[in-house]
Amino acid sequence: MGLVKKKLDEAGSRSGSFILAAEETYRKDPLDHFNYYIGGWNIANVHYLASVAYSSAPFAAFALVWFVLFGLFLLFTCICCCCCCCRRNKPYGYSRVAYALSLVFLILFTIAAIVGCAIMYTGQARFQGSVNDVTNYIVNQGIGILNKLISVYNYLSSAKNIDLNQHFLPPNLISEIDKVESLINATGNHPYLQSVHITHSMLDILNPVNIAFITITVFLLLLAFLGLLFSILGMQFCVYLIVVIGWIIITLALVLCGIFLVFHNIVADTCVAMDEWVQNPMANSSMKELLPCWDREFGQNVFDASRSAAIGVNGILNQYIVLVANNDTLPPQAVPLYQNHSGPLVPVICDPYTKDTQQTCGVGEVALSNAAEEWKKYVCDVSAAGICTTEGRLTPDMYNQMTSAVNVSSGLYNYGSFLASLVDCTVIRDTFKDISQNNCPGLRKYSQWVYIGLVTATGSVTFSLIFWVVYARERRHRKYTKRTNKRYDEYPLVGGRKL
Question: Residue 229's CB: how many other CB atoms inside 10 A?
């Protein structure tokens, strides 16, 4: 148990604050007059959230510019078409190079849009799966901590109720156990509740974004396919209609690009913060917002109570063994203490809290973990009156009571290192280390896939939208030119000269 005390002492020495991911979170904060945010990663800090949200400002600005300028372009085009309808008989200019290039670029951008949507959809599905894995892992860790604390609580409650031949724990120890049980009831489920709260909050935000991604992916694919189809078929009205719809969809896609950039930055910041916190675990750092450690006083109280209860139980067991089971001087009149004991002496429990290992127990002692198995050798057969009729020093009933008591003592001892690991954040550090090593690489990669796919698809559909109009115009001019040439071929004198 020297290692447990060392952990508790180390936890007390690590009480300073620590700024996590300071370089990665150095961004302008719009809530602080656009000064740079220097508070580090803190998912509960409104200034951190504002600064990381401000990183999406370029996409928001571009979405606004696109919406306004292209909207004005559409309005101007509509006005020109209405005002110049009487000039439809004016000869069109036609360029075969422009016609061919517009078709080639239209096909290329359509393919790029499809590839971008595929990357975005695949990355989004894997990113969502990675997020679910992380949230489930955090919740399961919180559940595991809670279940272990419940086990400690149950062992302490059992220790209070131990009755070994009218021997009980002293009142002052029972009072100490009552206080610790109250502490566990008050704060024992805090990590579980915190983990559930943060994971539910993450999913409440990510689920609508997930739906938005799926919707945008479907619309971008439909726009790319229908725009290409209508342009090639020369369905001019449908092309213009799909252009108007695309104008709105692209604006929403640009906004979504900015939103996901925020998620990508938060994921990257969180992974860096976990890496730094694993190297510099601080109980009062902002990482406690995900899965908190307890303060040293709580852990010390629970550890002391469990240690005292285990020592008290061991004391009752050893007292009974020495004074009753191994006492050959009891007269037959000393019922119920006298049970006709005989044979080899029952070994007492060596104190695990004063030994480096349980293998160093001396002669006449038994390790706590082996006590129940060893004592089974000293059980005798009994008569109807409960007196041993064969060699042995423990009646079956007393052996069962002693086994129950030693199980309680062993359970409390075994959970000692767990309690210490909560205080010095070993459990939490291991949790974040696993996430950092096993989940963060995937989260970074798949969030990057989504971001790249979304930007690629949005940009490709944006250029496709332009080339829909260009190709439709060149196709109309080409058709008009061919019809005019055909008329001149049939009536060469009408045009003044043959084309």
Answer: 14
Q: How many CA atoms, within 13 angstroms, populate the side-chain half-sphere of residue 217?
A: 21
Going by C-beta distance under 8 Å and a sequence separation of 6 or more, which residues neighbour residue 128?
206, 210
Q: At what angle do helices 296-320 and 416-423 cross, to 10 degrees?
A: 170
Residue 200 binned pLDDT confidence (cut-offs 50, 70, 90) = confident
Buried b or exposed e, range 335-352, using 16+ CB within 10 angstroms: eebebbbeeeebbbbbbb
> 262-305, pLDDT tens digit by residue?
888 988 888 888 888 887 765 456 676 666 666 667 777 788 88
Give the end-to-end CA distance of the chain in Å, rounded to a whole number: 103
What phi and psi, each to the nearest 5 degrees, are found at residue 382? Answer: -125, 155
Tokens of residue 194, six digits: 């915190």
Query: Which two structure tokens, joined as six digits, stand for 242?
Result: 């799909």
Q: Rounded distance, CA 365 to CA 322, Å?
A: 12
Nearest to 240 by CA among 74, 380, 383: 74
- Cβ atoms 395, 152 nearer than 8 A: no
pLDDT at 495: 46
- Per DSSP, the three-state class of 383 is coil
Dihedral pair phi/psi, residue 388, rounded to 5°: -65, 130
Q: What is the pLDDT of residues 229-260, one digit of tens each?
A: 888 887 878 888 888 898 999 999 889 888 88
The answer to whether 324 touches 330, Cβ cutoff 8 Å, is yes
- Cα dihedral sign, 274-279-281-285: negative
Does the pTM of the predicted model rise above 0.85?
Answer: no
Task: Identify whether 336 is preceded by a cis peptide bond (ω within 30 of 0).
Answer: yes
- What is the pLDDT, as a whole number, of residue 497? 46
